Every structure is written in structure tokens, then in C-alpha cells.
Amino acid sequence: MTISEAGAQRDGARPGVMTRHPLVSFFVLAYAGAWVVELPVVLSRTGTGLLPYTLPPAVVILMIAAATFTGPTLSAFVMVRVTEGKEGPKRLLRRYVQWRVKLRWYLFVLLVIPASVVLGAIVLPGVLASYQPVTLGMIVGYPVAFVATFVLGGPLGEEPGWRGFALPRLQAAYGPLAGSIVLGVLWASWHLPLFWSGVWTPPTVANMVMFLAMTTLLTLVMTWVFNNVGGSLLMTMLMHASFNTFANKIVAPAFPAPLLTEYGLLPVLVGFAVVAVVVVAATRGRLGYRDGGQPQESAPAALRT
Description:
Largest sheet: none
Number of helices: 13
Order of helices and strands: HHHHHHHHHHHHH
Shape: globular
């Protein structure tokens, strides 16, 4: 009997394939749970004739939002129940409301991250010259857009899986730097069907490569934040919502340069590249990780493999 199986039995979990291979099991469930929901959207948009109709945009958005919950969230709760026993889901839920962190981390995720996107935009050729003043409507509507993005745009549905379940185990197995790169690639790849959904950027090779690079760089920064806020999912959700909302609702309309119209991911890619390089260099690749695993709240038997 392995250590993880023995720990699982003590905590009331069930030893088995999923207990022995928690990361593989999680990613299989996360991909399958989301892609099954997104498949009707893709088939209705690709002209295959398999679904001879186009889903209304509102339905598409709701289905994509639902996929974040049927994918990463549901998979995370299934896996913590399997690997950690009945206390696993409770521990995961507590991290949703883990708000007691130092003020500087709120400032970082809500101000520094948006600032990095702006800087990533204005250094690109022709972007600064295209600047259009930010309107009162954009400012007033930003909090509403932020909440909508937080709930429906990925943060609430994705973070319990990527950062709540996968990241602590990837760091324990491969270290913070390599573990984050693995997570970044798998997180980006999970989004692939959305390129054919009709509500994302076109499925060109350039857009997909930029998205892969951007997501991997972002993951490095998010790991650093995660490790310094005790594994708070609330903070990673806020950070996820921060860059999504700011890039779409402020940067895109304020800088309607042709380059950004065609390659809207460029500012985020450039901005996160700078921040990621600084973070990795400053922490010497440790990204705030402490040996023994982070967060302490979620380090039961399943992490000791």
C-alpha cells in the first residue's frame, strides 16, 4: 500500500486509480467535463452540418461559462473528495473566502496587473497613436463588467481546479517553476475549443501560439501570488478577473490600433512577459514556494506522494 493510499484510508477517501494518479485523473476530468459542454457550440459554428443551426450568442456565452464549472470546478471537488476524504471539499471551499492577505497583494492584482497590460500595449508600434480617451461609461461600467467576468468569464469556475487542486500538487512533484510551466501549457490547451466558438479570437496559428505563451507566462506570475497569499483562491480569482476585464473593457476600446484589432492578445503577452521575467529572476525561480508545499491548508495525504 502506498503512502497516499494509507493517508486516503485514514481520511475516509477511497484508494484506487484516481488516488494513485490524482493529477492525471483531474486533467482528464477537467478536459472531458468542459469539452463535452462546448462541443455543441463548436459543431454549430464549424459548418460541419452535424448541427444545422447557430446557437444564439447569449446561449454560447452561458454554455462556455457552464463548461468552467463542469470542467475544472467539478473535477477539483471530485478529486479532493477522492484523495482527501470528506474534509477535502470543505478545505477547498474555505479557500474561496480566504481574504485576509496583505494589502499589497490586492494592489498588485487589481492595479499592477492592469498597468502591465497598458504598458504591454503602448510599447507596440502604432498603438499609442491610436489612443481614444477613456469615457465615463467605461469607468462606470467597469465594476459591473468585473463582477460579470468574475462569475461567468472563468475566474470562479476555473481557479478551484487550476490553482485549488492542480498547482499545489504540481509544485510538490516538479517544483514551482517546472510545475507552473506544465500547468500553463495544460491550462492554455484546455481553452482550445473556444477558438472555434465564435466569441473568441479567430483560430489562427498566431493567435493560438500567443495564447499558449501568454497563459504560461501568466501562470508563473499567478503561482508567485498564490504562494504568497497562503493559497487563497479568492486572490487568484480576482487576478484572473482583473486582467480579463481590463484588457477587454479598457485597453481594447482605448487603443483601437490595427495591430491590436488583429492580434488582441499582444498587449497581455508583452505585459505578462515583463512581469514574469522580473518575478522569476527576483525569486530565482522559487516563485515564493516553500518546501513542504503551499498552501498549508491543502496539504493532506494526497500531496505526500
